[in-house]
Amino acid sequence: PCLTQLCSPVAEKTGKVLGEFCRCYKEQYGIALFNSVRYEIEGNGGPQAQLLHRKVPLEDHVIYSGNLFQYIEENKKWRNRFCVVPHNYGLVLYENKLAYERELPPRVLVNSAGYKILTSVDRYLELVNSSLPGVTPKSGHSPILKCPTDFPLILWHPYARHYYFCVMTGKEQEKWRAVFQDCVRHCNNGISEDSKVEAPAFTDAVRMYRQSKEQYGTWDMLCGNETQVLSNLVMEELLPELRSTIGPRLKGKAQERQRTWIQISDAVYRMVYEQTKAQYDAATAKCEQERPQMESTIRTDMDQIITSKEHLASKIRAFVLPKAEVCVRNHVQPYISSILEALMTPTSQGFAEVREVFFKEVTDMNMNIVNEGGLEKLAEYMEKLSHLAFHPVKMQSCYEKMDQLKLEGLQQRFDVSSTSVFKQRAQIHMRQQMDDAVYTFETLLHQELGKLQGKDDLCKSIQRILERVLKKYDYDSSTVRKKFFREALLQITIPFLLKKLAPTCKGELAKFQELIFEDFASFILVENTYEEVVLQSVMKDIMQAVKEAAVQRKHNLYRDSMVMHNSDPNLHLLGEGVPIDWGEEHSGQPEAEPDADKRRRAKQVVSVIQDDEGVLPYEALLQPGSPEPREQEEPDCGAPPSSPDGVEKIREALAKESLGNDAKAEEQLTNGTDATRAAPSPKPRADVQSEAKVAHATPASPTAGAGTPSPSTEMSCHQPSDKETGEEVAPLSNECSPLQPTGTTESGEGVQTEF
């Protein structure tokens, strides 16, 4: 098969799906805009958070960097790579550590949204075998991948290219796995919740589109930025068609057919992504253009719109509610307590572990201050503590509590494809609550510093502030968990109810359209009002179940009647101040550091187990059937270095790492894009919903590398920024070419297939 034969059907399918989706998006945009303006005018109290929220994100740190081995598909070799995970959780792979320090362009930039982290080659082979039914290597034949060590790390995606890594020890594998999982968690985390119109419009449009195809329930591939989510939406429909038409035509051994299929899927995904981005950007731009006029109408006619909507709701309620209540009573109510208990146990254990980790870190810091000299060491300790929420290994004990979440039996009944959506959402809440607790502690301690007299005062003050913050954490974590439980119950039960009621109710909804005034048709939809009525039918039972759970005090939840009034009236004013820089203010340096020195001082959050470049045995670098290496490519032979068995505690080893000079032009994290190639022009950021959230951004054109620059050559540092966690694709050539791996051998400049 060649790309020429795929261009037309892929473009046709993508255009059809995007056409239907953009119609849904336009409808939901008006609804979301109305809800946003109404909320702004009417407000909606709710409990006030006691902890402070960091307004300015931490950006002067690297999550992790270190060496691992990557399998290069183009020449079937394993190569040592220096991997850097910056604060935006992209994976940036360099030729080696020296290339990173010299600010040379990275080999690969990977956005991990939608990926799964596998530590078993057998599990990977199962997924590969299932992706192309009927094509399974015979017993005794070489599989598609062999790992030279017992510690693989594989990034698997149902549509995009796969990435293969391995390390030398189990400790390294465990740490890298925690780091990679944090990258996936962050990149899956959709659009910022600050987007009050675009985000709900997008996610509701995705839901409405899938429901129009009779697909209800949670969706695992609702992850990444909007373009990634829509590409997944297209691929979900397109891939089975391609598999049935192209699969039987693939030639060669089973392993070769599997490898070719992965390449075809990746190539199609990139084509879909490019077309999807263009169509979606055009649709959002049109909505933004119409927004001022729509908003003006909403503000002018708010009362009439609300009255009209309530009249429509009353008519739909009279028709739907009796049927919905019977359905709730018979099919939902008996299971609510079971679902809630299944959610509460691991979630509450996870939040309790967050509290414990925070308490332990602050207590250890206090003890170290007693033993090591007070204020002089405070800045160093506080810089480490400020990054606690972003430490994948220390937070792993909190995150892994959610692995216990099981909805066995209930999962099939309520059409929940997987629990990963709920696990990930709870873990995101854990990280946010940890950071809020740390930031509140920082702020209160910083306020106290001017009043302290010596080491004893400092230690007493730390202990007192810790107790205050823990009380605030208990209250906020209870509020966050109760909200999470209510949302999860709705996510599980509402799609089930809509599916149950569809045969008797959905066909009758058209007759209610005449009740909507034409002037208000952009802000009131029959379908949305119907769903609100269904939600009301079950909301009372859900609220009651969560309330009863809080009364039992089994999971350390506050009752709804418990309202903690602001015990620190000036605390939130402190949170509005300039961010605290412990290194600048309390490091004892009399002069401000130049920017370049400050960048070199950037901290690495996770300590390195093996800092030196490992070397695999020579024979392990070649896979069967790989070409003979060129003389200059031969690795140095030698025994692989062993990682130290006694690793220092992570809290004592936040290593200083050089980040290099700031990039004047931001670099987009593309999924495996060769960073030496030019990238598309910037587009504005947009964001998505609660199930999956990832920041979306765009690159400036990177420096085109024609050869290896000399050490003295000054180059722009390709250091990813916050806006790089979106996925961007370099434009495909208009001329379709026969399918083959894009990229060259290791000796070339372009190494990876672009996405």
From TrEMBL:
Coiled coil: none
Low complexity bias: start-end ranges: 697-713
SMART domains linked: PH
CDD domains assigned: Niban-like
Biased composition (Basic and acidic residues): 646-655, 684-694
Domain of life: Eukaryota
Pfam families per UniProt: Niban2, PH_Niban2
Protein name listed in UniProt: NIBL1 protein
Gene of this entry: Fam129b
Family: Belongs to the Niban family.
Signal peptide stretch: none
Region (Disordered): 575-755
Biased composition (Polar residues): 734-747
Domain PH: 61-185
